[in-house]
Here is the input.
Amino acid sequence: MFSETKAFSGFSVDDIEAAKRFYGETLGLRVTEEHGLLTLHIAGGTTILVYPKDNHTPATFTVLNFPVEDIEKTVDALAGRGVRFERYEGMAADERGIFRGGGPLIAWFTDPAGNVLSVLQQ
Here is the structure.
């Protein structure tokens, strides 16, 4: 039924302008805005819809993952842009905030609306 449909994902934020600055300037994504909605343009032609929601509640799970070749370099660059990395109970992270406990190396952070994002080493 949907094998030929180009699906896309979306998530809410409480402040479209803050999201536009964060995703466009801090993360360096191409962001477009139309009708009060943001579209994040991700490599490979993928798009993600970001929409305002007055009673927004941040996602308690990772809504967007960014695979990277060098997680330490990426974490350092993001930290230099003011991004703070999350630490979760029971998941020991190193001084940079990188979890090295099995599986891919991963570091979690949040957008201005509190949604969880990650960078993970390929």
Q: What stands out?
A: The mean pLDDT is 95. The first strand starts at residue 9 and ends at 13. DSSP finds two helices and seven strands in the chain.
